[in-house]
Design a protein that fits this description.
Helix content of chain A: 25-40%
Number of strands of chain C: 2
Number of strands of chain A: 16
Largest sheet of chain A: 9 strands, mixed
Chains: A alpha+beta (489), B alpha/beta (505), C mainly alpha (95)
Helix content of chain C: 25-40%
Shape of chain A: elongated
Distance between the termini of chain C: 37 Å
Number of helices of chain C: 3
Radius of gyration of chain C: 22 Å
Strand order of the largest sheet of chain C: 1-2
Oligomer: heterotrimer
Chain lengths: 489, 505, 95
């Protein structure tokens, strides 16, 4: 935990450098049809209290019965986090009063969680990779929702979310910057989506983060932390870490001290503020839930789930690097979404894989991002992009023409190979035609010829002239070869 | 026919099957008896219309040959059980006006088998009590009169504060009183620390707390989840066996309910107990035990021996710790189970200046003093800094208590014989007003059974010097209720069926 | 162990039960009577003993992941002291 501080991560304060220390508790909604302990639907939205069973409403005499799929999803996630799977875990009650907590307690796993320690490998930049430790993952119930802005005197309570299964994934305090925090959550989200254990939809609250931030002088022990509750976008997570760290540094540099407290991030004002209602010291009186027996399964159960898992991002990335010879960061970009990775593989198979990666990442993803499209909605299919890559490889079109062709396919669609024919985009490889063009240019520019013969870097000027005359369709390699031989350089 | 309410459940069943009696007649007779017995305060709600409709339906099923095992038999239901569309309040003010849209698993089993519901029975609030005095609906009087009490002055007391009359015990006081006064053929009850067996013993009736997990807890208002278990109170061992067969059984809605077939318990009545080994635990011979209880216990030993059982002295060394440990575990679970009564979704709400004071005012007004006390003790023993010293320690002691039983069962003991209560019934208003612990001591013989999750039956075995009923308790192996029924029927036969009081009320 | 009056008030608040100042001494006495009753447990040797987690040794039953239960919003709020448009209504909660 006290590894030497990375100088590039430090924040310059008025009185010297500071190191940010971040740990996160991610609440990920388990993908399941019904709730953790009741048969009510988990569908998002719905009229108030329409997805509520008698169990969720804590009617007298109601009892929880665990949903096996939620157990499986937690185990799958544990496998995806390369974590210890605990064959025996227990459910505890966390007791507190709140109108959207109907039982007066939340069923959670306090003492012995279903998943123990694991790791997440995170690419922060093309050149930097970090490992974030996972402390634990446990299953728990979500609470209902209180609406406070419907009336000046009342709050309105809707229990539709009450009892929906959450996985709380607790990281170790291994994160050292806002950028790392964003990259960690992005990677965790990728893993969950690959596994199919959480849809990762942050707008609908399927993934929320409690961000623990503290600062310290490099090399010192951990400082007092503040917990920023319920941050619901990756961008806000980064902003919250930054503004909270700066707030703490300002206090400490003024000679003050940090109060350990719960805070809220206000994106509109770009600040965090104390949650007054949570200031009261809590005494949750955890104890094992007597309505539930210990949650037990054997290794065969875990192995069966492991066998059913898809290739996970880290493995896929390693395979892409190995089989396609592409760089680590590029591979990371390609595997971030399963659909992107599948798209890339369809383009790369049987083709120049590096060129395919270049086209998928730079041209296609660049364009999709710009237009705000998802890969599933891409106007250019993998087959079309593959055909473009083929045309380049075969020397039928140049890279420059290929970009024009991509533009046509993006806007109008069509078979790239046919488009090249009908629109006369084919590259000129006929040396006769190129020789004629070269001859004409040499004849018209004797001074440039002399210059080029003295200084071979002038060759580029001649190439440009030939391309201009051929409408960009001359094969650059052939142009080079012909020029070199005619100019004698 | 003479007074059909004097029939046992088994006799009434046979009379209905033989068409000597109709379910409507039988039900009407009970409704009439209930109307005359309102002073006992056994029922908090009577459901005559529903009862007669159910009885008529039963008569139709009997006529068509589609009768269930409990067809047409009128029963009372402890107010702890959710009954669809009918008052369900666990006799607490905090559940004011609550009418569930659901039926508890146990009662739905009874209706499935053809039984008829007469109404909801009084009980200690949330089943917390041993005298039925903590009920929001007031105390229940036992049909048994204290020695020397004449009927006229007793009737006067019944109309007033009931002082000077006897409690039927608790928490299933309404169930026990109603069964003993012939206001139903049998009743559902529930037992967390002795709430079936102690009132049964006090009223000369039979009550069985089955093994934890034998009956579903779904739809029973929870007191202490790891201890609560449903069971019947009836006038004979056979009647209890008939009722339990219907009440028990797997329920996918209760994760602690066992998935195992329910035996035909009635077949155990009269089965030989020859060669069975019965343990007599020396730790139950507590200091200051009244001689009449000692004698009752010795008589029980003699009855079982005469029937061919082998009697062995056994030791259950952690017996003494059970009651104090119970008063940590049960309040802890209760403090959490009763957190849902907050004035938001159902029941009483007392306004306050903000949400927190709304909670505090509601719970102050809605819970009686005993319930508030237990909730506070429970919150305390679970709170930061005390959890290990109290709750964890108590759960470790529970393991030791269960191991005590496991050891004697491993040595071949089939069942254990003890007194059911340390005394006969006491008077209303007599106990626990100064020191709550005085009342708690009533459960000293019964609570070990709940702590270990075992089955226990209380069966009347004699009368006290004051002419009040006394009961013996048999404790069995997990899920071996059959042995308990066989042995209890031996005691019942040997001691002679308890002669219950004639109506004076 | 025994509780003082401040503890009585703290526990009462933890359990969300209003207590009047006059009630506190009486409650303190009652709670201490119960605590002194359970005090004898501290003498029991529990070294190496596992706390009981389930009364009856059995495996917990799991439910299939199916939507089997929807009470209906009208049923859910049917017993509510105050409700509006199928929401439960409570005094305003300040976050």
């Amino acid at each position: 935990m006290n590894a030497p501080a990375n100088p590039s991560k430090l924040i310059k304060g008025a009185t010297g450098d500071w190191e940010i220390v971040v740990g996160m508790e991610i609440h990920a909604q388990v993908s399941s049809h019904s709730k953790l302990f009741s048969g009510a639907s988990t569908d998002f939205g719905g009229d108030p209290n329409s997805h509520v069973s008698l169990v969720d409403a804590a009617m007298p005499g109601m009892l929880p019965v665990i949903n096996e799929e939620c157990v499986k999803q937690a185990v799958r996630t544990g496998i995806g986090l390369k974590a210890q799977i605990n064959h025996r875990s227990t459910f505890d009650r966390k007791n507190y009063f709140y109108p959207d907590l109907p039982q007066g307690y939340q069923i959670s796993q306090f003492k012995s969680p279903i998943v123990g320690e694991g790791v997440v490998i995170v690419d922060v930049t093309p050149t930097e990779q970090i490992t974030v430790g996972i402390e634990r993952l446990h299953l728990e119930q979500d609470a209902g929702k209180s609406l406070h802005d419907q009336s000046p005197t009342d709050s309105f309570v809707d229990l539709n979310r009450s009892g929906v299964a959450l996985m709380e994934i607790v990281s170790k305090p291994d994160i050292r910057s806002a950028e790392e925090a964003r990259a960690y959550v992005t990677k965790l989200r990728t893993i969950l989506r690959y596994l199919g254990t959480c849809d990762g939809n942050m707008e609908q609250g399927s993934l929320r983060a409690d961000v623990n931030v503290s600062v310290r002088r490099p090399g010192e022990g951990l400082g007092t932390r503040c917990e920023i509750k319920n941050v619901n976008s990756i961008r806000f997570i980064g902003q919250a870490v930054d503004v909270e760290a700066r707030r703490q540094i300002a206090i400490l540099e003024d000679g003050g001290s940090i109060d350990q407290e719960t805070r809220l991030f206000d994106p509109a004002r770009g600040e965090t503020r104390s949650m007054r209602s949570k200031e009261e010291a809590h005494d949750y009186r955890y104890f094992p839930d007597p309505d539930l027996l210990p949650l037990e399964f054997d290794e065969a159960f875990v192995e069966e789930l492991a066998r059913g898992l898809p290739e996970l991002p880290d493995e896929k990335k390693a395979r892409f690097m190995r089989d396609y010879g592409i760089a680590s960061y590029d591979a990371g970009v390609l595997v971030a979404e399963r659909a992107s990775a599948d798209f890339y593989e369809a383009v790369a198979t049987g083709r120049d894989a590096k060129m395919a990666a270049n086209w998928v990442i730079n041209e296609l993803f660049g364009r999709l991002n710009k237009e705000g499209f998802d890969i599933a909605a891409s106007p250019v299919s993998a087959a079309q992009l593959g055909a473009i890559v083929d045309l380049i490889s075969e020397g039928v079109i140049s890279g420059k023409i290929a970009k024009d062709l991509f533009e046509i396919v993006w806007t109008e669609g069509g078979d790239p190979r046919a488009l090249v024919e009908t629109r006369g985009m084919k590259q000129v490889t006929d040396t006769g035609a190129i020789e004629a063009a070269v001859d004409a240019i040499i004849a018209a520019n004797p001074d440039k010829v002399a210059q080029a013969q003295a200084k071979p870097t002038m060759l580029g000027w001649f190439v440009g002239q030939v391309m201009k005359q051929t409408g960009g369709k001359a094969n650059p390699q052939s142009v080079n070869d012909v020029l070199k031989s005619k100019l004698g350089i | 026919m003479t007074d059909v309410t004097r029939l046992t459940l088994a006799e009434a069943r046979d009379a209905l099957a033989a068409r000597k009696l109709s379910a409507v007649e039988l039900t009407q007779a009970h409704l009439d008896a209930m109307a005359k017995a309102r002073g006992l305060n056994a029922y908090v709600v009577e459901t005559p219309d529903q009862a007669l409709a159910m009885a008529a339906a039963s008569d139709a099923r009997i006529a068509s040959g589609a009768a269930g095992p409990l067809e047409g038999l009128p029963l009372g239901v402890k107010d702890l059980y959710a009954t669809k569309g009918v008052h369900t309040q666990a006799c607490s003010h905090i559940l004011d006006g609550f009418k569930p849209d659901y039926e508890s698993t146990v009662t739905s089993h009874l209706w499935r088998d053809g039984a008829v519901m007469l109404g909801k029975l009084n009980m200690d609030e949330f089943a917390m009590g041993s005298s039925n005095e903590t009920s929001y609906y007031g105390p229940v009087a036992s049909p048994w009169l204290p020695a020397g009490r004449d009927a006229a002055s007793a009737r006067e007391a019944l109309a007033g504060d009931k002082k000077g009359l006897l409690t039927p015990g608790g928490s299933s006081g309404g169930s026990a009183s109603a069964v003993a006064a012939h206001l139903c053929l049998g009743a559902t009850a529930s037992d967390t620390g002795g709430s079936i067996r102690q009132p049964a013993a006090f009223t000369g009736t039979v009550g069985i707390k089955p093994t934890y997990g034998r009956c579903s807890r779904w739809g029973m208002v929870a007191f202490a989840s790891s201890l609560d278990q449903a069971g019947p109170i009836a006038r004979t061992v056979r009647d209890c066996a008939i009722m339990l067969r219907s009440m028990a059984g797997h329920d996918a809605k209760d994760a602690t309910c066992i998935d195992a077939p329910v035996p035909d318990y009635e077949a155990s009545i009269g089965a030989s107990i020859k060669g069975k080994k019965i343990g007599v635990p020396r730790e139950y011979r507590i200091e200051g035990m009244p001689a009449e209880i000692e004698k009752l216990w010795a008589d029980g030993v003699a009855y079982l021996k005469a029937a061919g059982a082998e009697i062995v002295d056994i030791s259950l060394p952690h017996t003494r710790t059970a009651l104090p440990a119970y008063y940590i575990v049960a309040p802890a679970e209760a403090s959490s189970n009763l957190a849902r009564y907050d004035g938001v979704r159902y029941g009483l709400r007392v306004p306050g200046k903000d949400i927190s004071s709304m909670y505090e005012n509601t719970r102050r007004a809605g819970f009686g003093p005993e319930v508030r006390r237990r909730i506070m003790i429970g919150a305390y023993v679970l709170s930061a800094g005390y959890y290990d010293a109290y709750y964890v320690r108590a759960q470790k002691i529970r393991t030791l208590i269960r191991q005590d039983f496991e050891k004697v069962y491993a040595q071949g003991v089939d069942a254990i014989l003890t007194p059911a209560t340390p005394s006969a019934a006491f008077g209303i208003g007599e106990k626990g007003s100064a020191d709550p612990v005085e009342m708690y001591l009533n459960d000293v013989f019964t609570v070990t059974v709940n702590m270990a999750g075992l089955p226990g039956i209380a069966v009347p075995a004699g009368l006290s010097g004051d002419g009040l009923p006394l009961g013996l308790q048999l404790i069995g192996r997990p899920f071996d209720e059959e042995t308990l029924f066989s042995m209890a029927s031996v005691i019942e036969d040997s001691a002679g069926r308890m002669a219950l009081p004639q109506p004076w009320w | 162990m025994s509780v003082d009056q401040a503890t009585v008030r703290r526990i009462a608040h933890l359990a969300r039960i209003a207590v009047s100042p006059e009630e506190v001494p009486h409650l303190q006495q009652e709670l201490n009577a119960i605590l002194s009753f359970v005090e004898e447990l501290s003498a029991v040797d529990v070294e190496g003993v596992e706390p009981m987690t389930s009364v009856v040794p059995m495996k917990m039953v799991w439910r299939k992941d199916a939507v089997t239960d929807h009470a209906g919003a009208d049923v859910v709020v049917a017993n509510a002291p105050v409700s509006e448009d199928n929401f439960f209504v409570v005094p305003k909660v300040v976050e």
